[in-house]
Amino acid sequence: MTALLKEIPYDQLNSLIRTDGIRLETGPFTTHLTTQLTDVINNLILLYADHQVSLEPGFSDFHLAIQHSGLLRRWIKPQVNFSFDGISPFRPLPRNQAYAIFEWGLNWCIANYAHYYLMIHAAVLERKGNAIILPGVPGAGKSTLCAGLSLGGWRLFSDEMALIEPQSRQLISNPRPISLKNDSISLIRALSPDAVFGMTIEETTKGTVTHLKSSTSSVQRSAEQSVPSIIVFPHYTAGASTALAPLTKSRAFMMLCENAFNYSVLGKSGFSTLKAVIDQSDCYQFEYSNLNDAVALFNSLSDELEASVGRSQEA
Amino acid sequence: MNLLQQTLRQPGSMEDLDETEWDLLIRQARSAELLAHLYYRLSDAELFHCVPEKAWNHFNSEQILARKQQEAALWETLQIERMLAPLGIPVILLKGAAYLQAKLPSAAGRFFNDIDILVPKTLIQSVEEKLQQNGWLTTHHNEYDQRYYRKWMHEIPPLQHIGRRSTIDVHHSILPLTARLHPDPEKLIESSIQVDPDYELYILCPTDMILHSATHLFHDGELEHGLRDLVDLDRLLRHFAQSDGFWNELVQRSIELDLSLPLFYALRYTTKILDTPVPENIVESDQLARPSSVATRLMDSLFLRALAPAHKSCKDGFTPSARWLLYIRSHYLRMPPHLLLPHLFHKGFVRPYTEWKEARAEGVTTTPKKIEKEAEIDIFK
Fold this sequence. Notes:
The complex is a heterodimer of chains A (315) and B (381).
Chain A: E1 2-4, H1 10-18, E2 22-26, E3 29-35, H2 38-47, E4 52-54, E5 62-68, E6 79-84, E7 93-94, H3 98-113, E8 118-127, E9 130-135, H4 142-151, E10 155-158, E11 161-164, E12 171-172, E13 178-181, H5 183-191, E14 201-204, E15 207-212, H6 216-220, E16 228-236, E17 243-246, H7 249-259, H8 263-279, E18 282-288, H9 291-314
Parallel strand pairs in A: 3-5, 9-16, 16-18
Antiparallel strand pairs in A: 1-4, 2-3, 2-4, 5-6, 6-7, 8-9, 8-10, 8-11, 11-12, 13-15, 14-15, 17-18
Helix pairs in contact in A: 4-5, 4-9, 7-8
Chain B: H1 3-9, H2 19-31, H3 35-44, H4 53-84, E1 91-94, H5 95-101, E2 115-118, H6 124-133, E3 136-138, H7 143-152, E4 159-161, E5 167-171, H8 185-190, E6 193-194, E7 201-203, H9 206-218, H10 226-240, H11 246-256, H12 260-274, H13 280-283, H14 293-306, H15 319-334, H16 337-361, H17 370-377
Helix pairs in contact in B: 3-4, 9-10, 9-11, 9-12, 10-12, 14-15
């Protein structure tokens, strides 16, 4: 039996997550999570309100626990520890980063244990049946762009990882909170007063971090896959005017390889999957500084694509 | 009996698992590094259709990873062969690399961290030089470690390739020179077998391969992947037992190499844990060295715990002590106390002190810099 997280009474959820754990469903993954940390529980309830949760035992892809580390550490410079089924892959972090370590840890699990997908470090969104892949090294403005598009009505697949199924070459949707850093936090807050944000976490290795809740419809439609049709390599440059330049397929292929988590692990199937994705997509390099202009440009890009698909169907 | 053990004994039982059992089986198998191995057991038993999609994904992911690692290891092995060919000596592959090169059943889905080779002791210096010239550099830079390895160990400090980060362990024997047992490496080299006439790559002969695997597990104390290594033994025993006279040959050879005690343990625990079909008269053979019956019972209580998957569902209150006692035992078997105690003292006190002193001299504080933590958590690295 699964239910929406927001429909489960607080007390029931709170006591279960502290003891037996809950099973949280995000796209194709089920995560079993236990934690006694109130800030993690409350942030989770806020940001994953629209996700499905199961309170009964069953199959889980990942078994995670977010806990205090050590007895003494409870009082002196408290720390928090992430564990994956009993092993701790990272060093503990300062206590205030507990929620962030959950999100990072879950990303780590997917990147390490889901080689049945080709995984690319990228944000993925969809509008009018056309999915866009936005690869990017940290700082390229990928997450900001992703948040802007998502608040502009695009359906969120992921702000972190493109999951491509090698046989069908479809993008798999795995909507989770969008991680925002430093200056982009106030930018996105100003963009939409209705947007839901999680707690603000200061002084992480990436600076100040917060999470933007993904839209309800993105989560509700997470079972719907999509074909990639646009690949854009974004680059944020302060003061730059919005500029979209076509990219050759061969160059785009190499750049996508560099951003893939497991391209070489997948061998031949990685190559053929990536090639198919590039073949069917329009590839661009994109420089921007104004988020509204950027969103408007992507909207027109998807309108054009929709129109051209319509024309070819009529013909 | 834990679920993984039961499954390894009877792969057919996977037909009847429910969702929560698949969940537990995958977790136990992953912690024992046997998930990709189970994929091949499913394949052999033609049971792919029984696996629910969610569970299947994990077998598939692990199998993809194992295949990639094996392809890389085969290629790496050929590089080593090419580098050492001018020396005109046989390069004997050990453990994982040997199973893989010889396509033995124990290779299916097996991961390994490094490539182990055995070369004659007299030539070890030229082997090291050749490898060094081709980019394999030593990993232990402090003088004490270098001296310790070279004086007492059965291998030189591991070499790592400067570009590809792959690691080679170059052995001249299969046990430390200070160990209680003294297998003669000359005999192992004499009986080694060429894998492929096109390459100067050799493996130990079947009996020696099993004895080495048994020695590594039961005398050298590497219990980190205990169950995985026991599965190696099970696969090898079942495979080689198909040839006539194998069992008697194995016992005779163990005596010849001074390795009959590790063989005793190997036969005892493969049969007990994995139901390996070993003839009764061989397990009971009085030609094999064995501990007293009291000691045997004690060892049972230790090994049966330490050879379970390293997963919390397979632990009891004594598991940590059992692992600790076996760790102590392995050190005791490796070195006599008059060498061991100074070594442990160095590891426990001298090394931390010098490291602290060096760090202070470089002006590094003991609190790790933020950037270091980022590297560890950053999945983009």
